[in-house]
Design a protein that fits this description.
The chain is of the alpha/beta class. It has helices spanning 22-28, 60-65, 91-94, 112-119, 200-206, 223-227, 248-251, 277-284; strands at 2-7, 41-45, 51-54, 81-85, 107-110, 134-136, 143-145, 149-155, 178-183, 188-192, 211-215, 259-263, 287-288, 295-296.
Length: 298
Amino acid sequence: MHILLLGTAAGGGFPQWNCRVPNSLKAWQGQAGAPARTQTSIAVSADRKSWTLINASPDLRAQILANPPLWPAEGLRHSPIADVLLTGGEIDFITGLLTMREGHRFTLHGTAETLDTLAANPIFGALPDERVPRNPIALDVPFRVAGGVTVTAFDVAGKIPLYLEGRGSLAGRRGTTIGLEITDGAKRVLFVPGCAAIDEALRARIDGCDLLLFDGTVWRDDELIRLGVSPKTGQRMGHVAMSGPDGAIARLAGLAIGRRVFIHINTTNPTLVAGTQERAEAEAAGWHIPQDGEDIEP
């Protein structure tokens, strides 16, 4: 099984277009230890012929250009992307769908909650059902996707997208934030780009996996507050911190995990910059801070 890390940053990318915090400045300046990153999306395949895109970021066109396995390869119009799977209705997960409006046929998979969010916005009518059929997925029920892999969606602690807050219809509903278990029959990969808390059920599901791609949005919960750029904590945004007693590093320590990789890393997170104390602490705990374009075989 092959996993293309098309993008590894959180919403806004790195550096975010309007951000001048210290590590973002290093990226603006082109420093070698702070390479730019696009917003999180991956592509998965066991045969490297057909691919399933997981989350369609606003940076999708640039990500396809940077990854030759996703280039058109036959006829006048073609794409090896045969399925798109969404883990939620966040802006940085869905807006890349509009890049795929030029006549290509693919199946769009998501929970009923996510597909309802798309259906409520007429702009996604640019992807008509007869060309882009919607497949509602049930939690904890395996299903096959393009590229020869099987996926099981599962609920994780999270929150509804900020732009839907106050509307009430999705608040507290299972399926609003999901993780994915992906397997080719030999290897097992967990993809969890957003997670507000790590409970025992999630720990049990992760234990024994060959590769974990996990929410690394913030290093510490009050990171944005300390930097003076936002009043929101990581928890308020629906993300568990990397560090701290309830953070991902501590809560997932001791589990049997083949490879640990943080994804969806926010522009404010100091682990994005090589040589920082935070990067060193994450790596010492066995976590990899990836760059865009990595091709991982679990």
